[in-house]
Amino acid sequence: MIIGILVSIIGMIVLIAIIFIKTSPEFGSKSNGERLTKIQASENYRDGKFQNLTATDVSGDINYTKTLSEFFTKGDKVPDWSIPINKISSETIANTADSTTKITWFGHSALLLEMDGKKIFLDPMLGNVPAPHPLLGSKRFNDTLPLAIENIPDLDAVIISHDHYDHLDYGSIKKLKDRVAHFYVPLGVGAHLISWGVQENKITEMDWWESISFSGIQLTATPSRHFSGRGITDRFSTQWSSWVIKGQKDNIYFSGDSGYESHFKEIGDKFGPFDLAIMECGQYDAQWPLIHMMPEETVQATLDVKAEILLPIHWGAFKLGLHSWTDPIERITAEASSKNVNIATPIIGEAVTVGKPIPTSKWWKSNN
To answer: Which residues contact 231 (CB under 8 A, 6 or more apart)?
Structure first.
């Protein structure tokens, strides 16, 4: 009887999971028609899935039992104090001079880029939990954002690096979509946006090395070493990208998520030097070394792309790895110092303005 009850419970859980995956809009949708044709024509799409430039085992050598245990029990993965947030206003954004290039970090990989009078949001994951359901992920470290999503002014563009939940958020897109002039995304990601109510003519999907110009700003989708997927069976079905954003006078690089590879040097040779590189630094582990960089590799990647300033992201907002929450910033500031790399360390909501002194406080050390 006990075995029968257990089997019934497991069967019910599986059934609920299947229904949730099939009916929940958070999982997005698959490409079809002309968008699918463009995917299939990409040289980066083979054997029914997108590929990295070099062989990449995204599963690494993971001991899942040990990893899950350590995720919930080991280390200071979440701050035990209220980390600082710099509040900003819509008026502050509206008053940014057209000649100024300013980047405001919203935590993790979400950033507002103001360039040449245009407002561009990178990976606007502004939700509270990076998961398809609040019970399936860890809560954001900070209770408030620098600016409430409802108060974010009209945006000229949104750029997405890939479709993982900590970068592409259903709730954020639903709230922002009618205030965004255009979305620029890797191949396949447009299908998610369309299923969430974004008008198809407001979406441009781009393959690696493709460039497009809008309002005098040149965007180029460039390679990264990672993977994609929002469900159980759709891994590698959409592309992942880094981005080059070149304005009238300033040149910005956004790494998205990426393991260290030779593509950084190739991007630097083709599109550098950069005034600022926004580089992932966090959620790494020795078990998955090919899809996320160690902090020391992030500094080397910054040198590879020939960037004047390094802005580390992908940390300080969510518990997604096994390291302590301050490990990324402690290691990368030490490495940057040893390699003479200029590193900006803003608190969430604090702007980094190209051509002006960069924020360098060690705010994560204080809990007063």
So the answer is: 21, 27
